[in-house]
Design brief:
Four copies of one chain form a homotetramer.
Chain A lengths: L5 E3 L2 E3 L3 E4 L6 H11 L3 E5 L13 H4 L8 E5 L6 H13 L5 E4 L12 H13 L3 E6 L3 H10 L5 E2 L13 H10 L5 E3 L5 H9 L4 E4 L1 H4 L4 H21 L20
Parallel strand pairs in A: 3-4, 3-10, 4-5, 6-7, 7-8, 9-10
Antiparallel strand pairs in A: 1-2
């Protein structure tokens, strides 16, 4: 395919499918699924890492993620506020990880929804410290704008709660975010089926992040390929332009002919 | 991919994407798009053919559809009742076309919705005459059953009106048709985006038919590839099993860690 | 309210809410709910009646439905085909019930979806015999037209399966039925909440039939009143004309003022 | 009806329908519609008022809103940030209006979506100054919680953009807000039809605010009554408990009988 490239913070990213590394049944399964997905950007939860210096950070999981092949995107999942998120990001950088961070601050354990106030606060601090910041947010167009004003590299609005597989329930708001965005829009969370991923891309999202649906599939590698194809298909359709949605039918076969 | 095969009337069909041949801007574009789509089953409206014997039937369009490569599926689009549809099918067979017929009877010019009574009547006649009958129907589970009882080879419920690009508006009813089907279910009409095609496949449809969205795309061949990928992705997801849709979130990253 | 009247078969009906009599926990509850609903048309399943002559037909249930106040609409629920439905209707008429019949033919025990072929067949017979026929149908616009052509008094498309409370899942098709109808359209089945009833009326349905949601409510009479109000509200909105649905916002408050 | 009372900041409010005063074609129409609606809480944009002291604030519009009968709720519509909103609220209080304020801060002129950061900031200030604060917010459950923590009297999440009449497009998020709320939840914006209002109430919202759909109706008073009934119907249904939504049908009429 000849799709236009995705560029984030001046880096050209070869795949519009980002993959998360939680919930896989084994590191081997994860490694194979990442490979099959074609993803370049791979998220890892910092809370899963030992950043204390007592152990080699990421020792185990890093053996399975080739840093030459993937852009490792640490996320601050588990942080309850800006302070915790900033601390996690700094520790990760100090431990030698790339200064890219997926900013996730969700104080609510039931729905894991992001905190808009703390997210903006942490984004301001981290951008000033030279981080490339990709914040996970509710589908809030005004918040998306404010984050763009402080210099984030993307916005990552949720389709529906993390791991819920409910798809793009926030359709109307995501449409507005895309329309107004000055940075790439990555739809994150809730994408539970290839059709959800394709829909996000057809709406004009620049990328999607998928984790649960791949990680817990009976065959994560095959599911990763399915998502890769769906993302490409949706992107192609967006670039080519989808036909107008009509109220009436429009005959595909001419209704008059020369049948004798 | 290693998806299970699609079998219709004892014939193994290599692609779950069927493509219609109306609305292309040129026969060359159509030929290339068919090739790119990977489709095996290709529908052609009989009303577009000269079946009178005065001219070589399908002379022109057939130059562009390789009969070795594709299963040409004549459709009776334009027929207002069973009698007209049966006559069209017989003429096609007499002209040497395969005895497969996509049965389309839609008396209503605005929405092109199929007539359940005439469709069942025509199906009964054509099945008895040895045709392989693939009827286009409203998403009516009881009608689908009755058609199966008279021996149709598939049922082809509509997602939404032909050419409307509204997607799977009849979701609930199609789910029931699939659940109760004893023949392959092909979702036809209204599929205006790759995500629609993927959704139909994820629901368990055996195939989809796409025409308008490919034919009128700025680049029909690229759009055909997009649909091919979406159909494969949706089928894979169906075969692998999609994750449960939840009301709440489900953390992908463990929320407690050993961060010091 | 000054809504335009609903006229079915030349009879002016005072309420656009029809109520079914199944599933009530007691006949007293049913009687009170019917009274509270303001309904004029009340359906009763013929299968529940003793029409054999051995017992007084409807003896018990009729003590609770005042024939002066309500138009009793016998339904053929439980009939598996046209023959059974016709027989039920004739027995009811012979037993002195009004020659109005809600035609319900659903061979499928899981979804209770109506059979389009048998329904049309029975409608033709019963119309010729002088019955006022109100058929329960799938949301199939072509079938609706054909029934109108044989002389039915209304069409009663389903919103979703009986008792499922899923609301107007067949929205797109019902919109077409209403647009093309020459008789009143009564949305039947699946209406599980006042908002569903209001929506049907806002779309231009002439009436709705509600049973389960009222009958199994903790207080059927209060729920009946809620549905009555929702039906009236939806009808009013339809008659007054609803505002256009916009993609953008439209300020309700002027955004410039003379604030100093 | 015997619905449980709505209490906001210790005041019992007699109606769960709030009405806005923008867009009416005349003050007389507005007055009559307010009366017909049964509303107690009525919002007025401060930007429309002369609060400079040069003129009698609200002179004109106040002649049409009986302060004995209605609780006048000034709103800060038009404010671009917290500072402007706070200034407007203070001016209103200084001019003798009640210290209740509907906090609206929307910097974006196209979609009029609220700013979460500025809204929280202004709410903190105004609550400390003794205002009863009712903030208009995106359907963001975490923001709703944070506002509750600073002491707002309600939260007012949007269904869809102001004046768009798109209904409850933010359904999933509003459901979470309601589930977690410690103050009344008032669904605001986008409610364009009685069915939308009923749905919000059925979901458990404590009240709804309607403006455009009433103000621009061909007969605002009749439309106000329609919304009043829809709100009551939805609330009743919520209090009585709605029936479960099922995947299958559930017969309302017994399918076996003693018909001979």
């Amino acid at each position: 395919m000849t799709s236009s490239p995705l560029i984030i913070a001046d880096r050209e990213i070869r795949s519009r499918l980002f993959v998360g590394t939680g919930k896989f049944s084994s590191n081997e399964n994860m490694r194979d699924a990442l490979d099959a997905s074609g993803a370049e950007i791979v998220t890892v939860a910092l809370r899963r890492a030992d950043l204390t210096g007592k152990h080699d950070p990421y020792a185990n999981i890093l053996e399975f993620i080739d840093a030459e092949k993937y852009l490792l995107l640490p996320n601050t999942s588990g942080a309850m506020n800006a302070e915790e998120a900033v601390r996690l990001a700094r520790l990760a950088a100090a431990a030698g990880l790339p200064k890219w961070v997926k900013l996730e601050i969700h104080p609510d354990p039931t729905y894991l929804l992001p905190d808009p106030i703390e997210t903006l606060k942490a984004a301001e601090i981290l951008v000033k410290e030279g981080f490339t910041v990709l914040p996970y947010i509710n589908a809030d167009p005004v918040l998306a704008k404010r984050l763009q004003e402080v210099g984030v590299a993307t916005v990552m609005p949720l389709g529906s709660p993390i791991g819920s597989n409910r798809g793009i329930a926030t359709r109307d708001q995501i449409r507005i975010i895309i329309e107004q965005a000055t940075v790439p829009v990555v739809v994150d969370a809730g994408i539970g089926a290839p059709s959800h991923a394709a829909e996000a891309m057809e709406m004009g999202a620049d990328a999607v992040l998928v984790n649960t649906a791949i990680a817990i599939a009976s065959d994560p590698s095959r599911m990763a390929i399915a998502f890769k194809h769906a993302v490409n298909a949706g992107r192609e359709a967006f670039e080519l332009g989808l036909p107008e949605v009509l109220d009436e039918a429009s005959a595909t076969s001419p209704l008059t002919g020369f049948l004798g």
